[in-house]
Specification:
The structure is a homotetramer. Chain A is of the alpha/beta class. Chain A is 30% helix and 23% strand. Chain A has two domains: 4-148 and 310-323, 3-Layer(aba) Sandwich (Rossmann fold), CATH 3.40.50; 152-307, Dihydrodipicolinate Reductase, domain 2. The first copy, chain A, is built from eleven helices and 14 strands. In chain A, the strands form two sheets. The first copy, chain A, has a seven-stranded parallel beta sheet, with helices on both faces. A seven-stranded mixed beta sheet of chain A has the order 9-10-8-11-14-13-12. In chain A, helix 1 packs across helix 11 (309-323) and helix 7 (133-141) packs parallel to helix 11. In chain A, 63% of the residues are buried.
């Protein structure tokens, strides 16, 4: 079978760099073009020295027609907002799109407008599918465009989804999430300056982060209370999710629900009773580890992912694999870079 | 006024080193002796090179009579368990004791035994007072022995106490706490090995940590659900506390309750609305910063302390100041080492 | 004796914040004013939350006449370049100046112009003294203006000075220095972005850093080969200095030279033979630890300082103490915040 | 072509874990057995949760005959000393060995004894080859046993080798090396305790580390002055190497020498003039980046590798590829996990 021809639009941010790393090792993807703005015409190793000595196409200025002439799939790793125009032009040119920004995560323009602002191409939203494969695998296969799920939402959906779906908990989620700093992107700012980020810890956007409605929508409208925290590390999200068990539900039933939910999932490992997941054990991978803890009526679910892996580039490639009819784990079988 | 004569028992762990640092800068404390076991007879700078070039008494082998001949107060910075015998002998010799271990935090031997194991000197428990000055200031002044409050409990008590005392929340606390690694002490182990601790994150002892009953007892028996997390940094605790507001209570009322609770507290700063406390802003101090967030019926309180400062050595000196009739902030006015 | 009246110009950068922290704890300094530009009219705690809850004068717009009416000494913690005008106006108004920028470290305008660019107030350079007290103590006492020594230069001067002065090594220094990130200041940039700074390591400005001529000049014109490296930590400099011993000089002679050089220095501790200095043992202090290693004709000297302490704010206060006729260690006796 | 059958002896340390990660992704290696002591009989995910959910053979107790019945190649990732017996028995059974310990890096028993202590199986040393492929590629191809080069030596050999070989520098190397903490292994100790390792920096074994003779021998007996430093990060070595140019050699000639030396090397990238290599750009890879800096008669070469990759497991697999007649980069084409 011929490898699929893929284009990468926006290679110099962290999700772009991670996509590039993963695509270079993907046996069924052939990278036909790298597209960007600031870097157009220059070798990618200038902005990403990690690729020094690696043969790569030069960065080209984005042009939908050119992409369409060379690729069947395009990954968009551009800032939120910038993906709307790019996606619309690529869709019009017949390219299937995996968007890693927040621009195509909702298929309802009114909902999108409430969370963000009015969408420039609501017709794209009519085509889009939420890119969280464990939950929406079937829809992704045939999608023309996928809005790859956000990092925090992925961690919470995998942690809380099984219990909510099984009806063993009340329909309310408290999600206390902890993220590495790479989730904030590559543009420097006061909030990601080393000396204001290392050796310290704080929450941000408490109860007011835009990922809360994304989580809620993916979980069927459940109430979500979301508090994200910035952790002095590069990669990783730990979601500590607090759920209230329905009366009479015990730890064994909880475990049975989660075992069943994940029994066929390649990328999700339910840890043994008592084991605590750690982000370092999924670093650089598309994997998720889950731990379960019950005390009387309280269920605490802990999930860990790599925010740039399963929370971004890995999951985007998982979506691509589904769209391309490939085995879901093609090019994604890595285990963690530990330590 | 003559400085108080103080002894430090157990100087080479992290709380001991922090006590030593603080006592050297305390204008009303005169350090008359350093006591230890493994280090007896050797200069302290061998195990704590931070004191190279500083004139200090050599480490002596602990002897209650000798301590009593030279000091009126003794700080115990020895491992949990080891403080029971030392405290009993010091009390018998007339020395007032500030114990930083967990050995004298409960005045009820049966409660102590349930959380830990039977106490070797229940008669000491009859004399002890819980060393959390903002809450139990009056009892501490006259105490012969104080069990300085634990680091996690201090962070949660300061965060949740005002709301619970004012009756504006239901009597249940979910405390999602994040601690730096120094809280685990100075003895190396797999759980504090650099490569298993940096660049990653995990919870531990979920819903099963001994600080939960300590918190509960200090807060009048309220139900406490406690999940501690280990953060890749040295110092600092951030407590994210989830409380349910009584019907009809709004954000303004919450703020009024906290303003009143802390209006005369030197060491507690209530941050402006919307501001998130960060552990780096209290590093090396006896201070606590508090942030308040309300969404409908949910109150999220965030508090930050330095686990070795307000969570251990700083608070112990605050207790000492009270016991010695000194202004509560004597020797504790430092602001944070930032960055 | 009345405390000296001091003003702090530029409080919101890292050296300014450290000065503020130290001045608040200085028993013979009374802070009469905080001056800045962007923050003028606003409480300092807005830009430095570490001072939340601490009573401080509001930030005023800098005005030399106003400073002169309230203070006898002014610390300048403003960016390189900005100190030239401020210092000139303060000197004219009779205020003695301690400048922490690079603007007044050379008394020779031509030399200054070669390293940086022509100085706007060469008349200030005629008055200035290099603020490295262990080396130029006597000149500092009577100086009207001091250019506080740079962080890297301080580490190298203390390491190499004794051997060079004693003539036991050839007149050439290789200085392989390693610095924490706070040395790069508080303005965010790609080079100090957390994810490009943590968990990695690189040199910068190899053999081309402006601190090389500063070191050379302070050491009497010796040849200096200087390679600075950026270390993923906040504070601290370790200088590993390579020197060639004159024929016949052995380790015992080397040690004797250093012992004599530092025997009366409060802030410099020569570690025992075989001991390696570590930046963590001087964090937050004005101290320097030195280790000596000899192999045949090679002398390796290792020195550690806190780049914001002995390398900036601490040393500036040490200069102030000398200028004010105070004991040199007034307000500087802290031991390290460890860990 | 059939994949080669390989065994991994000692999987639970850091080099073992990295080998396991790499072997799982190696298209021409089939892992037939995992061997260990403490973990024998238990799933590897217990000690390495990064492999949770991954199908792997259980850990068996090491037995040379059993290994020989199932594998043609064995990787030894056991502590220094323990590899001597294992290697001898495997060689006797006809298995080709890649040893990652220091036990088989010298083919001269007397030299080995001087650096370490007498070798239990000098007959193995008669067979061994130093496993640094860029330098000893030809000998490795036919070797029955390879002693994979140490991490520090690899960084220094690649940095200094070309200049020394070309005779453009004096035969003396000053190597100021900086390593991440994972190089110290997985056994906890005071020197790798998080709070004594993070946020600080120190040298160790100055001029007395056993890697100095290893470097010297690989470089033909040149004099090596070696000072290793411990950096608060997990992975990575930066070697800053100081060399004296022969009279008349200039920067252009230096660059020409290095370009020629590495023109056919897949894993070594010579960075453009002025560029500084950074360990983060080779993290998780078998790559090495080199930067060159010249000032008059001084040549500073900077090289970066991943101590667990090119400095251990990656290089071991590179040796295996040579021994097995495979393309040298089989299974090693990864680019860095960045950030």
């Amino acid at each position: 079978m011929e490898p699929r021809r893929v284009a990468l639009v926006g290679a110099t941010g962290y999700t772009g760099a991670e996509l590039l790393r993963l695509l270079l090792g993907h046996p069924q993807a052939r990278l036909t073009g790298l597209y960007g703005r600031a870097q157009a015409g220059r070798p990618i190793a200038e902005s990403l020295p990690a690729f020094a000595g690696v043969a790569l196409p030069p960065v080209s200025r984005f042009d939908a027609a050119e992409v369409a002439s060379q690729a069947d799939f395009a990954f968009l790793a551009v800032p939120h907002g910038a993906a709307q125009e790019a996606a619309a032009s690529l869709l019009a040119a017949g390219v299937r799109v995996i968007d890693l920004s927040a621009d195509h995560r909702f298929d309802d323009p009114a909902f999108y407008a409430r969370v963000y602002s009015p969408h420039a191409h609501p017709e794209s939203l009519a085509l889009t599918t939420y890119g969280q494969p464990e939950r929406f695998r079937d829809r992704i296969r045939d999608a023309r465009i996928v809005g790859s799920a956000g990092c925090y939402p992925t961690s919470v959906i995998l942690a809380a989804g099984p219990a909510l779906d099984a009806g063993i908990v009340l329909p309310e989620v408290i999600a206390d999430c902890k993220s590495g700093v790479s989730g904030a992107g590559r543009v420097p700012g006061a909030g990601t300056h080393f000396s204001e980020t290392s050796e310290g810890l704080h929450a941000y956007k408490t109860l007011a982060h835009r990922h809360a409605p994304e989580i809620s929508r993916a979980l069927g409208g459940v109430r979500v209370r979301f508090v994200p925290h910035l952790i002095p590390m590069n990669r990783g999200i730990l979601a500590t999710v607090y759920l209230r068990l329905q009366p009479g539900v015990d730890a064994a039933q909880v475990r049975a629900v989660y075992e069943k939910a994940f029994e066929n999932e390649t990328f999700v490992a339910l840890l043994p009773a008592g084991a605590h997941p750690d982000t370092r054990h999924v670093r650089g991978t598309n994997r998720c580890h889950i731990g379960l803890f019950v005390d009387d009526d309280l269920l605490v679910v802990q999930s860990v992912i790599d925010n740039l892996g399963k929370g971004a580039a890995g999951q985007a490639i998982q979506c691509f694999n589904l769209m391309a009819g490939l085995p879901e784990d093609t090019g994604l079988q890595h285990t963690a870079l530990f330590p």
